[in-house]
Amino acid sequence: MFVSIRVMLSIVMMIFSTLTYSDTLLDAERAFESKDYEKAYRMYSTLGEQGNPLAQAYLGYMYENGLGVREYLKDAYFWYEKSAEQGNGYAQFKLSQAYRPGSLYRIADEEKALNLLFSAAEDGHARALNNLSVVYADATLGVSENLVLAYMYAKLAADRGDLVAKNKLASNNLPRQMSASEISAAIELANSWNVGHRLPR
């Protein structure tokens, strides 16, 4: 009986801790949405130090844009990296942007930029998927031009609500460069992919 009580107390404590953690994150998001950035920053800082990847991504964004704190790209990178290491797709996308040539971060590394872009895309991040479409259409970040993959990534991004990708497909800029069989192959590839699985390169 004594062991059972201890187990029950442990479960109750764990549930309470989880609820408090969630409530704090929700409060931080509300403060951010209402543009009370100083309050949001304080709350996200606590959560970020505790290892919450979403809070860490928010901290990266706040440092990158000077919201509630002084704009400081070094700290933005620090928090994006912490979040990305835990699989946060948005943070992976932002780090990918940081590594692109010409970025304000001045840490250009095309291989890292591409690998992080794939990680974010495999997490279902719509902008990352659209960026991969651009990469394959324009043959950047060390890849060769591949319009089938460019179309596939544009479709995956559009299916997830990316307006740029939707406009790209609707405007026919990409499709008119392709044959009907290439478009069919791209659509088949897009329809066969699920979030969390490896993407073709």
Automatic annotation (TrEMBL):
Gene3D superfamilies, per the entry: Tetratricopeptide repeat domain
InterPro entries linked to this entry: Sel1-like (IPR006597), Sel1_AlgK (IPR050767), TPR-like_helical_dom_sf (IPR011990)
Alphabetized Pfam families for the sequence: Sel1
Family matches, as SMART domains: SEL1
Protein name as annotated: Sel1 repeat family protein
Organism for this UniProt entry: Vreelandella rituensis
